[in-house]
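Appendix C: a fully annotated inverse folding record. The material below is reproduced so that readers can follow the format used throughout the book. The structure is listed first as tokens, followed by the designed sequence.
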């Protein structure tokens, strides 16, 4: 990404398990992204198309900072797969195997793993109703909603439904809970079933996006919810529509490990937003 903003806005297209992103490096361009631009680039018919847009910025304490936008122009506090994608690219560029990244979630750590995989520590799960956030105090392990879901915060709010068969579930019907009054900021929604004590099948409805092939923060939330319900241990394989990710809830936070892909680079024309 070497062109200047006068030529247009350079960007990268990346994905993690089909969860796709546009990445803009504001360290090179200066301030560039706003709500209108996020919406325009996020349109899959008239723009580039993405599940989230990740903006790279400088940070005084971390190697870099990331800010996330959804395709509808809203912002997101966390995006695990985008964090892994940017971390993989940046570590390769720097020739290092570790990286620190500042997000709204806090200071995250990324590491290179074997077989070309990238791991990110997404921090400790948020298990207080005020901080998820929820509209009122309830039992996070058994929300007072049809389907008996679990609420978990991972920088974004998450609502997880454990079902008999995630593949047969009507994801759009569950996705209607995205804007339930119990979640004042909306929520990501997951449906999942337990394959084995260390194996889950999950599908995702992302806040501000809709159905996605994968979601890193959702994977972390589902792993935490399953462990807290006693369905699995704290280290699990999760099969999503776009592939497989591994989540390990440790004492130092929730680590997720999976593949990343750089698809192409382009330049968004000036005045296109």
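Designed amino acids, in order:
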């Amino acid at each position: 990404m070497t062109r200047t903003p006068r030529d247009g806005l350079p960007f990268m297209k990346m994905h993690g398990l089909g969860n796709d992103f546009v990445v803009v490096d504001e360290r090179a361009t200066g301030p560039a992204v706003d709500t209108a631009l996020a919406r325009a680039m996020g349109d899959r018919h008239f723009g580039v198309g993405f599940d989230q847009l990740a903006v790279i910025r400088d940070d005084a304490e971390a190697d870099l900072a990331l800010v996330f936008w959804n395709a509808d122009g809203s912002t997101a506090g966390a995006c695990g797969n985008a964090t892994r994608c940017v971390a993989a690219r940046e570590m390769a560029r720097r020739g290092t195997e570790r990286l620190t990244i500042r997000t709204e979630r806090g200071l995250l750590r990324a590491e290179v793993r074997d077989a070309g995989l990238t791991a990110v520590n997404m921090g400790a799960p948020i298990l207080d109703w005020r901080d998820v956030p929820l509209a009122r105090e309830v039992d996070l392990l058994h929300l007072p909603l049809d389907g008996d879901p679990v609420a978990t915060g991972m920088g974004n709010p998450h609502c997880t439904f454990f079902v008999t068969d995630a593949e047969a579930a009507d994801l759009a019907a569950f996705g209607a809970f995205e804007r339930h009054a119990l979640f004042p900021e909306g929520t990501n929604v997951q449906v999942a079933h337990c394959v084995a004590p260390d194996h889950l099948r999950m599908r995702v409805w992302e806040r501000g996006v809709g159905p996605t092939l994968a979601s890193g923060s959702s994977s972390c939330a589902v792993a935490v919810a399953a462990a807290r319900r006693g369905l699995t241990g704290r280290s699990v394989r999760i099969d999503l529509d776009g592939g497989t990710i591994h989540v390990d809830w440790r004492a130092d936070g929730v680590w997720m490990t999976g593949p990343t892909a750089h698809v192409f680079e382009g330049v968004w024309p000036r005045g296109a937003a």
